[in-house]
Every structure is written in C-alpha cells, then in structure tokens.
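Data card: per-record layout.
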Amino acid sequence: MRPPEFPPLPALTRAEGEFIDRYLEVLDQVGRINPARGSDTYGALRAAQALVSHAGALRDALASMHERGETQIHASTLARALRVLDGERRAGRVSVPPAPAS
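The structure for this 102-residue chain is written out next.
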C-alpha cells in the first residue's frame, strides 16, 4: 500500500519559500506558548525564547524579498503553500479552543 500523495507546492521563489518556512516556525512557537492550550510554564518559556530567533529569521526573509525587488506578497499562492505544509492545523494551535459544552 502506497502512502497518500500530497499536492505539489506551488512555484515559489527562493525568498518566498524562506518566508513561508520562517512564518511556520513562528506560528509553531506561538502555538506552543498559547496559554489556552499549554500545560507547563517551562515549555512555554522555551517556546518564547525560540520565538525571538525565529521572528528575527522571519524578518530577514522578508527583508531579503524586499531587497530582491519582490515587493508584492502573492497571498493566494502563499496560502496554497501554507495549506500543503499543514499551515491550517498549525495556525489552529494559536487560537483559543471552543468552550466546553455545559
């Protein structure tokens, strides 16, 4: 039995790919910090510490795009890339979970 095939990533510039990768790293760290989903302060602290360096890398990726003349963010293309890379699930960790039924 073959594993399922994932849709291909849309064509991205190297800088766009870097932007998406760094954005997802930041998103993952913010999800780990989320007080509505966390379980311990140490894990949140470690994620907050990592967030600083990941945010810097995201800034650098955006600066690189801008310096290369890539001044437009092609939202629909980048959204497709985020979906392929499980961005919806990863972004869901940042939100507040629904209240339990009473």
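Known properties of this structure: The radius of gyration is 16 Å. The mean pLDDT is 93.

See the next section for split statistics.
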